[in-house]
TrEMBL record, chain A:
E.C. code: 2.3.1.184
Recorded superkingdom: Bacteria
BP GO annotations: quorum sensing; signal transduction
Coiled coil recorded as keyword: no
Organism of this sequence: Phyllobacterium phragmitis
Record field: catalytic activity: a fatty acyl-[ACP] + S-adenosyl-L-methionine = an N-acyl-L-homoserine lactone + S-methyl-5'-thioadenosine + holo-[ACP] + H(+)
Keyword Transferase: yes
Name used for this protein in its record: Acyl-homoserine-lactone synthase
UniProt keyword list: Autoinducer synthesis, Quorum sensing, S-adenosyl-L-methionine, Transferase
Similarity comment text for this entry: Belongs to the autoinducer synthase family.
Classification lineage: Bacteria, Pseudomonadati, Pseudomonadota, Alphaproteobacteria, Hyphomicrobiales
Automatic annotation (TrEMBL), chain B:
GO molecular function: DNA binding
Keyword rRNA-binding among record annotations: no
Species of origin: Phyllobacterium phragmitis
CDD domains noted in UniProt: LuxR_C_like (cd06170)
Protein name per its UniProtKB record: LuxR family transcriptional regulator
Length: 221, 251
């Protein structure tokens, strides 16, 4: 199931959230060599202490984490505002309810390979994006701001997403960094569902187990 | 010209331009049909500093007195949950223990409607507010009303929060920092251009222009784009006449 976890629900997902912080360390610190704060086996920073919402793909037992991202409203403190204000002033200074930032999007390739061998990491990434779009629509969010590497934009476009690049800069790593706005609308959602051949919703606001759509996904493709 | 007693004549700008939080709540209640009561609360504790409780509401005096006398703030599940949540929520989504259930029964007996929707608010310095709307409408009508207005209400909740900060701390930046793109979009709005025009002029997407204008409008505490453009002119942020290009933002 793909659920949103707010501060009052953190206690119900201890193992999933711990696994999320471990996956983030493996992806962003070990693999991508980002300059992120590491606390033992976790990658956690000050924004994780500000009661963010996590969009998390986990099993219905709430034991296994397959992928996640961190979501914060731009009216409050955001990573983009603090870190990229000089680099992308126009994007980083966007601040309004309905405009949220998404950071630390990752998938746990090992857990996926074990439990969903028919779903590739890239497909998993795309499925999370669709769930993000569903989550945003339900919650009155019309724009998601995020930073990404240029090559990821092709992936976004292939998922049927609509991304408006607001800025691009060198000097943060091997690749330039882009900052973009993802448009959220029912039209965008149906284009994404079409591109990924999905017919049922993935995101479950009430955290009930969802149908077997993920178990079946990819087998037919 | 104005008929403040008739809800249909209370414009959304009147809510944003109300002199204080209490007036804004009354204006809000008057603007939307189907709303019984409106409440705004600021979290009491901010980063270790304890503020005086700040609550403004349109609930009747008798219910407010009872709420205070019985110490209901300790059991009110909407307050407890509302400051932990980030996303707007319907009151029926909140888990209830027996104290909370008794509280809601008492609230209902004192005229509080069965439907509610709360919007958590946060600002750049992490002050948290909660804007709540209450109604006696049947569940399906209420849900439809919230769906129709939820984005507008989220904006107004942010504007009311700004008023509360001003009332409590007297700190409002009269000239908010706007980004270059926000200023450009306001400039062309003041000259009567719509979203599509501005998108063409600035070579941006319609959606991006909408985002910049919404962000600029809320930084200026305005409910509509035209009010924001007018305010930006008054503050000297833009001078659309007689020049035809937006100002450059410093060296």
């Amino acid at each position: 199931m793909i659920v949103s976890i707010q501060a009052h629900e953190y206690a119900a997902y201890p193992e999933v959230l711990a696994q999320m912080f471990r996956t983030r360390k493996a992806v962003f610190f070990d693999n991508l060599h980002w300059q992120v704060e590491v606390d033992g086996e976790f990658e956690r920073d000050q924004y994780d202490d500000m009661q963010p919402v996590y969009l998390v793909w986990c099993d219905s037992e709430r034991k296994r984490h397959y992928g996640s991202m961190r979501l914060m409203p731009t009216t409050g403190p955001t990573l983009l505002y603090d870190v990229f204000r000089r680099t992308f002033p126009d994007a980083a200074e966007l601040s309004a309810p309905g405009i949220w930032e998404g950071t630390r999007m990752c998938v746990d390739e090992k857990a996926l390979a074990e439990d969903y061998p028919h779903i590739s990491p890239r497909q998993a990434f795309c499925l999370l994006l669709v769930a993000l779009c569903e989550f945003a629509l339900v919650n009155g969010i019309h724009t998601m701001i995020s930073n990404y590497e240029p090559h990821v934009e092709r992936l976004y476009r292939r998922t049927g997403a609509t991304v408006h690049e607001l800025g691009r800069a060198d000097g943060f790593g091997r690749f330039p960094v882009c900052c973009g706005a993802f448009e959220i609308s029912s039209q965008v959602l149906s284009s994404m569902r079409g591109a990924l051949r999905l017919s049922e919703p993935l995101y479950d606001r009430s955290a009930r187990p969802i149908p077997t759509i993920l178990a079946d996904y990819g087998k037919a493709a | 010209m104005e008929q403040p007693n008739d809800s249909r004549f209370v414009s959304i700008d009147r809510i944003a331009e109300a002199p204080g939080v209490q007036d804004a709540l009354w204006a809000f209640q008057g603007h939307y049909e189907g709303i019984s009561f409106v409440t705004y609360q600021l979290a009491r504790t901010v980063a270790g500093k304890v503020d005086a409780p700040f609550v403004r509401t349109t609930y009747p005096e008798s219910w407010i007195a009872r709420y205070l006398l019985r110490g209901y703030v300790e059991v009110d599940p909407i307050v407890r949950d509302g400051f932990a949540r980030r996303l707007p929520f319907h009151w029926h989504e909140v888990a209830l223990d027996s104290d909370a259930a008794n509280f809601l029964a008492d609230a209902s007996a004192h005229g509080v409607g069965g439907q509610g929707y709360s919007i958590p608010v946060v600002d750049k310095v992490r002050r948290r507010g909660l804007f709540s709307v209450n109604s006696v409408l049947p569940a399906d009508l209420w849900k439809a009303l919230v769906e129709l207005h939820k984005q507008e209400w989220a904006s107004l909740a942010q504007i009311v929060h700004g008023k509360a900060i001003y009332e409590l701390h007297g700190e409002a930046d009269p000239v908010p920092a706007l980004s270059r793109r926000e200023v450009e979009c306001l400039h062309w709005t003041a000259l009567g251009k719509d979203l599509k025009d501005i998108a063409l002029i600035l070579n941006l997407s319609d959606h991006t222009v909408r985002d910049y204008l919404k962000s600029a409008r809320l930084k200026l505490g305005c409910a509509t784009r035209s009010a924001a453009a007018t305010r930006a002119i008054h503050l000297g942020i833009i001078t659309p006449w007689p020049r035809q290009s937006p100002p450059n933002k410093g060296p």
